[in-house]
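tool_log.txt
---
The assistant was asked to compare two proteins side by side. It first ran the structure predictor on the initial sequence, then on the second. Raw inputs and outputs are pasted verbatim so the downstream comparison step can read them without reformatting.
(1)
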Amino acid sequence: MIKGKPCKVLSISVSKTGKHGHAKCNFLAVDIFTGKKLEDMVPSTHGTTVPVVKKTEWEIIDIGDEDELTLMDESGDQKTDVNLPTIPEGMDKKIREAWNEGENQVMVTVQAAVGLEQVVAFKTL
């Protein structure tokens, strides 16, 4: 977690101990929902928080006029509180085209962390 956002760490660099005796860790990371790069520097003796990220597969049952998705998992449970993704740009149109008004079976991967959920991938079966 960097600046309250769940991130995937790209690199960690550690500086030498300074005159105050603490080495610093510089984290370069990317937000898992927006793709924005974030940077944070913390003393090496401090801990950091790690988000619990969960990915689940859902089948698209319907796509509403306001880009809301109706999804169903393998056990038949339905989910209606996820919209088509706005990031990366154009993914929403690709999912709509792949689904083709229900003619094709499309599976989406929903990523959840810190109370947020977003479609991060899709595939046509």
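(2)
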Amino acid sequence: MFAIHTLQVLKRTPARLPVRHYTQYLKEHAYINGAWVSAKDGNTFTVKNPATGEELGRVADLGVAETQDAIQKAYDAFYTWRDTSAKERCEILKKMFALMMQNQDDLAKLMTAEQGKPLAEAKGEIMYAASFYEWFAEEAKRTYGDVSPAMTGKRGITIRQPVGVAGMITPWNFPSGMITRKLGAALAAGCTAVIKPAEDTPYSALALAMIAEEAGLPAGCMNIVTSSRENTPAVGKVICESPLVAKMSFTGSTATGKILLKQAASTVKRVSMELGGNAPFLVFDSADVDTAVAGAVLAKFRNMGQTCVCANRILVQDGIYDEFSKKMAVAVEKFVVGNGMEAGVTQGPLINDKAVQKVANQVKDAVALGAKVLIGGKRHELGHSFFEPTVLADVPKEALACREETFGPMAPLIRFKTEEEAVAIANACNVGLAGYFCSNNISQIWRVAEKLEVGLVGVNESIISAETTPFGGVKETGMGREGGKYGIDEYLQYKYICFGNI
């Protein structure tokens, strides 16, 4: 019966989604096995607009029982989805890509409403998110195997097969992109998924479920489990420990990642994790100062500094330090802070008050240790969860801003003298996701790029992530890669088959 249903769905050619106001994406239900469901106890949780503090709506607050049901439905669906052809999976993913792009404006407005980023950035994320569906649609047809060298009387081949149900726990800072980067690879490989989106931004995830449903993705292949901050630990534990879940993927903090990793070990799951970052941005004397300033501003303040690849420590060489710091303060002063829905706004709110307090504490600590505030440095007069874009000069390496990920609009400038000193400072942390540097010395470029202990390096470039390239880090930033030709490997396993009596 399920196989017949699947074929019918695959044959359906979806029309363009009807034009919607973004508020029509505010679903109050979770999505399990192709149905929109409430919590068994009827509980819901509130989602707020961080720019205004106003309630956007209420969403089903699912718990352990509903999560177990979602896992079972994904497990059942897997045994049909894995047997679809690569071409069939490709076609559905391409439809999901097309529908996202057709509805880019409304999906972006929805994201800005619940996450806060300026509308232009939200549109960019929708395009980025959709690109993973398009990329992995093609990768679905390239999961090649191998033929082993001939053995006497035997022949051997190696095939690649989907691992099974993939559990995914995703963050609020890129509420669409962090789902599609995982889900696109999983679906292309033949896996099904149970997704737990961040409680601050569930609507973007539920909108993706609407897109998938319209594109003809069979029931059970994509399940969205929404839950409150209070229920999240229990839901995450079920996903990690369920024997029906074969793969666990998480993007979030290092502390939470370590907890989930221990839980996933109980069933020896395959795990990929993209955890905390503390990205260095090095500016050498040979760099073009104006180009370096523009790059540092972009790397630091995109999404109000709330990205895992944000430039968290900006190291500038002695010879250009004063010029660089003055020009960066001037550039940041031009920012327009406000509601991301408003035209011209370049900086929106932080996600919540806890995030604001963290930035404020880091500024206070740095100033107490001798740093100077060049611009900003306090809560914004708009109130709510707004913070002034901030640049601090002469920040000591011991400051919290250098030792902890800020995740906010504050740029600490650190002076250095030599290349060796800069690299040592850059590598003096327990995480390593992204690193950036500006230099026009080709020998130095090779040396520094190879010595930085990170998974991603931007050389005279601040926007380094794309669907065609691998994303992931080293040290306690996690394990595994997403995107590029390597991303699908996380959802495939190898099987060797030996033919005898030949």
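---
observation on (2): The first strand starts at residue 30 and ends at 32. The mean pLDDT is 95.
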